[in-house]
Design a protein that fits this description.
By secondary structure, the protein is mostly beta strands. Helix content is 10%, strand content 35%.
């Protein structure tokens, strides 16, 4: 079966002047190409097309088809409990969570866990917060987590930490807290937990501005600190 990729890497356009007597003009270009997971194993050639004359050249391709996936229903917040979590627009809320991942194809390495708020995943009007890269026990590009595709059980990634803050623009629209992976190789899908204070939920949101009493308390503390500094200076 011949399968044609619909994914392209753009290398930009620039003029090349070729004399009428020249049969070939070579130049070096750099492109990053990512094969889609569903058809990856079917691809046998890597091709380049020159525009506007549509000349196409192909070479044999050795493609790494490893794909890393978060196992369904394994994204679990371990601390604090959902009833004690409130995400706000004016301060960070820290959570700790676990997940499990699997790999297909060749062995792959997870290099990051991204955490973000969103609404209905399948909605055409989906909104999504800027992802936060988890720390703690989460893999990083400097310390990746190797995932063996031949393992009989999913790989645990535990004690991941994230500090999250809601954005003002879309705060009221968010209904889900989600994670996705960064990896050497392909990644597939995302795993989400509904926002709420019940068991197996991710906590509630508060889209109001910082309360007046909280602002007053901070202001009084700043004044008190300034006063202490003045008194110390006067006594020296």
């Amino acid at each position: 079966m011949n399968t044609k990729s619909t994914h392209f890497a753009s290398v930009g356009s620039f003029p090349i002047t070729v004399a009428a007597s020249d049969e070939k003009h070579e130049t070096s270009l750099l492109a990053t190409v990512i094969a889609d997971a569903a058809q990856c194993a079917s691809y046998k050639k890597l091709c380049a097309k020159a525009i506007p004359n549509d000349d196409t050249e192909c070479i044999d391709a050795n493609i790494d088809c490893s794909v890393v996936t978060v196992e369904e229903k394994t994204f679990v917040i371990t601390s604090p409990s959902p009833s004690d979590i409130t995400y706000t627009t004016y301060k960070d809320t820290e959570i700790t969570f676990d997940l499990q991942v699997t790999a297909t194809g060749d062995e792959a390495s997870v290099t990051g866990v991204n955490v973000y708020f969103t609404n209905d995943i399948d909605s055409e009007e989906r909104v999504k917060s800027d992802p936060v890269l988890a720390t703690g026990g989460a893999p990083t590009p400097e310390e990746p987590k190797s995932i063996d595709h031949q393992a009989s059980e999913p790989t645990d990634i535990t004690n991941c930490e994230a500090k999250l803050k809601l954005d003002d623009d879309n705060c009221a629209d968010y209904t889900l807290l989600c994670i996705s992976l960064s990896a050497d190789g392909g990644v597939e899908g995302e795993e989400c937990i509904p926002l709420g204070e019940e068991e197996n939920q991710a906590g509630t949101t508060d889209c109001s501005e910082e309360s007046g009493s909280a602002k007053l308390g901070i202001h009084v503390m700043e004044m008190f600190t300034s006063l202490l500094v003045v008194l110390v200076i006067q006594r020296m």
